[in-house]
Design the sequence.
């Protein structure tokens, strides 16, 4: 039982971290859009 809860907590932490990274990615993408960088440079960065 203890091992299961450890894995569950780890999974929750990893899921939360992934969501935060996705959120940060969209925030930076929005910032790039707001600064009106050339579309070409944006696609090259991907």
Sequence:
């Amino acid at each position: 039982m203890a091992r299961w809860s450890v894995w569950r907590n780890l999974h929750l932490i990893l899921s939360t971290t992934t969501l935060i990274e996705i959120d940060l990615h969209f925030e930076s993408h929005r910032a790039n859009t707001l600064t009106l960088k050339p579309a070409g440079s944006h696609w090259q960065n991907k």
